[in-house]
Amino acid sequence: xxxxxxxxxxxxxxxxxxxxxxxxxxxxxxxxxxxxxxxxxxxxxxxxxxxxxxxxxxxxxxxxxxxxxxxxxxxxxxxxxxxxxxxxxxxxxxxxxxxxxxxxxxxxxxxxxxxxxxxxxxxxxxxxxxxxxxxxxxxxxxxxxxxxxxxxxxxxxxxxxxxxxxxxxxxxxxxxxxxxxxxxxxxxxxxxxxxxxxxxxxxxxxxxxxxxxxxxxxxxxxxxxxxxxxxxxxxxxxxxxxxxxxxxxxxxxxxxxxxxxxxxxxxxxxxxxxxxxxxxxxxxxxxxxxxxxxxxxxxxxxxxxxxxxxxxxxxxxxxxxxxxxxxxxxxxxxxxxxxxxxxxxxxxxxxxxxxxxxxxxxxxxxxxxxxxxxxxxxxxxxxxxxxxxxxxxxxxxxxxxxxxxxxxxxxxxxxxxxxxxxxxxxxxxxxxxxxxxxxxxxxxxxxxxxxxxxxxxxxxxxxxxxxxxxxxxxxxxxxxxxxxxxxxxxxxxxxxxx
Length: 498
Hints:
- Helix content is 42%, strand content 13%.
- By secondary structure, the chain is of the alpha/beta class.
- It has a domain at 86-400: TIM Barrel (Alpha-Beta Barrel).
- The strands form six sheets. The chain has an eight-stranded parallel β-sheet with strand order 5-19-18-15-13-10-9-8.
- Helix 5 packs parallel to helix 6, helix 11 runs parallel beside helix 12 and helix 12 (382-400) crosses helix 16.
- The radius of gyration is 24 Å and the shape is globular.
- This is Trimethylamine methyltransferase family protein.
């Protein structure tokens, strides 16, 4: 077999178009299983329902067609749930702080992002873990801002150097907004904390009501505590976000074998029911409000009961969750890339690779928790984030599949080559497709062994350390003007160093 070699030092080519590929070719559930699980989810809501509804949610639900069991559990008939699905928003626009850096969520358009609320970071200089700080949140999200294949950033770490819930919520939102002009996501401890954050976003965008017109931040809300129990504070946060126009990403994250059935089919049915219950409530509050279902079927290692994010079961369960929501036409988020490895080693690579790839191929609109995370989402790493961006470029390319376009098959060109120079390297088609059909790694190595040894034998971790340091040394993002930032700092308890 004849092999061709590229010259050392060939510069990295620009990446292909940022248009998100559409997934959905991978369908882990056959037609009967898909129908069975979906029907069971409807039956769960109709027969078992949800408990612990706060008084205002209970009244809202009963006024809009829900019923109540003798034990106080709210029941939603299939007709009611299907009606709310029909009314729901099918395409959620998430603009960036710079509007055209935004994304459209829905229809199987695959987007990859951060998330996870890790409480530790891995220091590359020492190889040790430490508590995460507000500055770590900024550093991680600055890296997201530069990454071609990471489309949004839900806060990946918790600022453990802040204790007051309101101060933490304000600083998390401010730091995310300052670090990247891509869409961001945040969370809230209490309903009362939503208003000051939205007011801050209004001021950053130019005045009252500006955020509602350009909602660059979504709220990640765990509206349910599995199994099938509403979370009172989260429901209050959900109502405030609807009132103030902040898009929602509402989460069901049961752990199979612990807070949902050990059988994956049963876990998926329960999780879908919990997700749909949230969608019903949101559309009772405001029909068509932008809401994305974060259906995150977590998995237990049944030997210990601990959560495992990198397992094959996690990969197939989250791909199935994406398929279930795509089948219903509902914007989706699933979880992937939650490696159980503690460093960016071979285990991290293979666990992240197949979990993210399966979720993307199944058509997940958003893939949370997918990049930069280690240790079953308990820790984050800037260097891992850089490596994962490289990996996701290849995964997103695989979702595109083999594309047929005018000139893709050119018999005249083939004849000219086989009767002429004998290779396609210099043809017009090859040069044209170099940056359209092909994706190139930023730090992944494709040198020959000898060239790699001669150039220093750097591992991908070595290169990630260098790349993360280069990003740290870049000028700070300037989409938030100095004048507005100064005004926000004067009015609010901002702890991020200027």
